[in-house]
Amino acid sequence: MAIPIARFPVGMKRGVTTVEIVAIGDELLSGATVDSNAARIARELEPIGLRVTHKATVRDTVAAIADAVRDGLGRSGVVITTGGLGPTKDDVTKSAVASVLGRPLQFREDLWEALQRRWSRRGKIPETNKTQAEVPVGAEVLPNPRGTAPGLAVDCELGICIMLPGPPHEMQHILTESVTPFLAARADPAARKPFRRHLRTAGIAESAIGERVADQLEDLPIEVAYLPEIDGNDVRLSAWAVDESEVGKSLEEAVRRLHALLGLHIYAEGARDLAEVVGDLLLERGMTVAVAESCTGGLVAQRLSERPGASEYFWGSMVAYDNRAKVELLGVSEEALERHGAVSQETVLEMVDGASKRSGAAVAIAVTGIAGPTGGTEEKPVGTVWLAVRVLDRTVVKRRHYPGTRDMVQKRAAQGSLDLLRRTLLGEEE
Hints:
Helix content is 37%, strand content 24%. It is α/β, with parallel strands linked by helices. The strands form four sheets. The protein has a six-stranded mixed sheet, sandwiched between helices.
């Protein structure tokens, strides 16, 4: 049974608080394309007090799109669609929305002329692109400087429907430049907004974080979310209020308690990457780091070098994957390799020693392990990794076991080496 649609006076400031998303495309349902647009829309709209409460993914058919839009308007009164605005036969979003809103499509000569001008450098524009100059009667055109399909917004008695192109780089630009201001002007000024704190951790499992935190924040008006990633777990604290002054003290108290509960596992607040944290510690101490990598294949070096100005603290990396490279580049002894193997405490210690001596750097990292999916043994299963860090005359070595696929082991090993260096620079260990 179709959901009845609430009707609003045209142009009324109706205090929008919720939004629904309709993602359109057979490729989304088949898994050929991953939908990143919905997450971006939710992140963009929350700061203006709008919460995404429902998302539907539908096929490229008029019936499927129309049903989803009609249902969304009935629930929240605001629907954002993504996809289906191109010039091909399967791009039917505008037709579907027009049928729901009772707003027929009209050809806009000004839009067609603008499209022709944009195509002029490439030659004559195909006639099929004319469909992109058709818009529902009364729709506001949202400029798209990154593509040929403009966004569209219709604010009518049935509610608000916003149509955005599917390609993320196009959708994101229109979202930020046009959609957010459009909806902000219609949002409920008394709506609660999310105020957040984001803590990043390393070297501790999501379940262990949950066990430590448990009910320790229940007396605070805070929502706690655990965000697991391949190479670490983040904790997000959220409090909803009209103004941050209402929840600021509670958020700060929650952050203080988490630091007490999780200790050195917390390496940053906000969006800072662990490599950036390590870089700052090296800069503060006037130190340079050299890296010797085997199983990570240069991933540690990539992480350290991504930041502009990394040359101030990053000497370089020697990727010694083959045993001969370990001997010739790092001076690892053939005896250590023969007696203990490439994945061993003895070998990783000689690797970090070689990186230190050959670079002259005050700090060195070494990583060697079995990333898989083959090569493991009962004594050294896939995921076995040895890490070594040297800071001046202090050397720390650790054996780790990282679960997962080959790329997961590599990413976790790189993160683990950076975290071990962070802890060593701070003079702390687990």
